[in-house]
Amino acid sequence: MRMSRVLAVLLVVFVLAGALYVYAWTDTIEQLFSNVEYLGNDGWYWSNSFGYFIDLDDNWIYHPEHGYLYCSGYSETGIWIYDYDDASWIWTRDDIYPACYSLSEMRWTSFVGGRTVSL
Fold first, then answer.
1. What is the domain range of residue 99?
2. pLDDT tens digits for 61-75?
3. d(CA 46, CA 26)
4. Terminal alpha carbon distance of the chain
């Protein structure tokens, strides 16, 4: 009887933690780019500035033009994003995107047609 009660409590804690994580990540996505709208199609979102992307869990998203991106270090001043295809970190925010700062190149770049170009 005692073991089942412990398991039940652990299950409740696990479910609540998962719900808080999903809420926090969704909140981050919505703060990252303006007017983010959940489309309800298997995790797809739409943003006026960022376009279509899908939430893949654990801070990973997929963007049709940029590929796989890991979003980390969000703050009101911007977000650090790891670009899997380029194996590099970039920093941007809603009001300057598609401009971004490339950490590996140590200069400002821009996303144009799915490619990163120098500014």
1. 2-118
2. 999 988 999 988 667
3. 13
4. 66
